[in-house]
Amino acid sequence: MALATALATPLLAQDSGNGFLFQQPAGSITIRGGYSHAMAGGDLFPFVTNELTLGKGDFSGPLIGLDLAYKVAPQLDVTLGTSYAGTSTPSNYRDFVDENNAEITQVTDFRRVPVMLSVRAYLTPQGRAVGRFAWVPSRFAPYVGVGGGAMWYKFRQHGDFVDFQNSNSVFPGDFTSSGWAPAAQGLAGIDFNVSPHVALTGEAKYIWAKGTLGQSFSGFDKIDLSGISATIGLTYRY
């Protein structure tokens, strides 16, 4: 027993660092990836999908994100997070061709980058203290959260277009609108702890945002930037 104690003590000290195993960790960092579904509401998206060979699903796609969390209470985190979701889709007019009977083609790009500050509340304890020398994480730790911030977006269409006000002539064009818009979000997720330092995190999130369009799209209402995402991430506690 004396020999085992002598061997275990330095190993525990090495693993604990600055007291990690003596108390709950101070924060975490999560890298996540998944899928972002764009709501594509308003009047701009229905217009382009009616005129062009685009579908509502063409504005949805892969997502990658990063979250930094700091613990302010045993079951409460403050999180700063961002993500990137973007699509680039070729298309042509549904009902028009050019004078050579060729398709009139263009490309539509849609990018979204939210920067959000959130409060995340865990519904059950994330772990428990064992004596004075160890903090053991729970196997599962579900949470919910709300937050707000801003979203940067870019909506661009470039290629050939029909001028409906000038005898339906075809012209090359590049129409772009980008900027920042206020955003709010609600989220729910769960940590599956695989070690004291590492967890797999699954999360579902809804972000609401609407942005003002630039002169290239004058006459349209605000662009709908809202969406639902589902991600899986790798979390490291520090």
Describe the structure.
With 238 residues, the chain is mainly beta. It has one domain: Porin. The protein contains two helices and eleven strands, in the order H-E-H-E-E-E-E-E-E-E-E-E-E. It has helices at residues 2-16, 44-51; strands at 27-38, 61-73, 76-97, 103-122, 127-130, 134-137, 140-163, 169-193, 198-211, 223-224, 227-237. The strands form two sheets. It has an eight-stranded antiparallel β-barrel. The chain has a two-stranded antiparallel sheet with strand order 5-6. A hairpin with a 5-residue loop joins strand 3 (76-97) and strand 4 (103-122). The radius of gyration is 25 Å and the shape is elongated. The two termini are 32 Å apart.
Number of helices: 2
Name of the top-level CATH class:
Mainly Beta
Low-confidence stretches: 1-20
The tally of domains stands at 1
Question: Keyphrases for this structure?
Answer:
single chain; 238 residues; mainly beta; Porin; 8-stranded antiparallel β-barrel; two-stranded antiparallel ribbon; 11 strands; 10% helix; elongated; disordered N terminus
Secondary structure layout plus pairing:
Layout: H1 2-16, E1 27-38, H2 44-51, E2 61-73, E3 76-97, E4 103-122, E5 127-130, E6 134-137, E7 140-163, E8 169-193, E9 198-211, E10 223-224, E11 227-237
Antiparallel strand pairs: 1-2, 1-11, 2-3, 3-4, 4-7, 5-6, 7-8, 8-9, 9-10, 9-11
Task: Give the gist of this structure.
The chain has helices at residues 2-16, 44-51, and strands at residues 27-38, 61-73, 76-97, 103-122, 127-130, 134-137, 140-163, 169-193, 198-211, 223-224, 227-237. With 238 residues, it is mainly beta. It has an eight-stranded antiparallel barrel. The protein has a two-stranded antiparallel ribbon with strand order 5-6.
